[in-house]
Every structure is written in C-alpha cells, then in structure tokens.
Amino acid sequence: MNDTSLSSASSRPVDPERMPWIPMGPAGLSFKPLRFFRDGSGWMYLFRLEPGTVIPRHRHTGEVHGFNLSGTRELLDTGEVIGPGGYVYEPPGNVDSWRVTGDAPVVLLITVRGAIEYLTEDGQVSKRVTSEDRLQTYRRWCEANSAPFMATLE
Fold this sequence. Notes:
The chain has one helix at 131-144; strands at 22-23, 29-36, 42-49, 54-60, 64-70, 72-75, 81-82, 87-90, 95-101, 106-113, 116-119, 125-129, 152-153.
C-alpha cells in the first residue's frame, strides 16, 4: 500500500508535566486535558481524584476507556477494585459509580466518547457533561490564569 496522504500527518505532543491540575467541579476532582476531538465527539484527559472522592451514579452515551496510572478505586455497583495498571472499558449506555479507596489519590488516563449523564436516584438525568463543556472549562481556566492552551484540538 502506497498512501502518500498519510505523509502529511504529524504528531502533536502534549507535556502533562508542564500542566497544572485544573479543578473540575466538586472538591477532590481535577484534570489535565490532553485532547479534545474537533468534531465534539469526545476528549482525553488525565483525571485526578483525592482519597475518599466518590463519583456519583452516571451513564455514558459513548464508550469510555479508563487506565489507572496510580491509586485504587472501587466500582460501587460490583465491588471490583481497580488498582495501578488496571483498565476498564465502559460500553455506551454503561451506568456506574465508584470511589477512591486508600490513602493515595487516583490518577487515570481516560478517553470519553459521547456525553456523561449524571443520574438521580430514580434514574433521571440531573446533569449532562459534553466534550464542549470540558473544553470551555479548560478555556475559562486558561484565561483566568493567563495560562497557555496546551491540549490538542484535533
């Protein structure tokens, strides 16, 4: 196969070590955005959760890939414990909640496709978070802190 159209593709490195942790919603949550998909279909980020933090019941409209870089979390619906090096695939429509266990923060590399819908006890959507919402959170933080936009937008 001799496809010269690929020769114009170039890498877009992002150095998360040069990025601060950006507050994201409730206390105990922060992120380092790595990539926002230009078509609005999703985003990739490093996600940090402090010990004891609980992620409330939510549903994903697209697939999610989560790789634990450090720390331990428990999936509250199943009791499964995911430690460093653990990977979780969540298919579209997956509903779950989880919490950080132990004394160390959890850091995950996450790719989200679609939206995240936070649910009430009776299953109603109480909040919907999209790639555009996360992008705007990051842009506002960069502007407020005179920080450069370091994530890729491809």
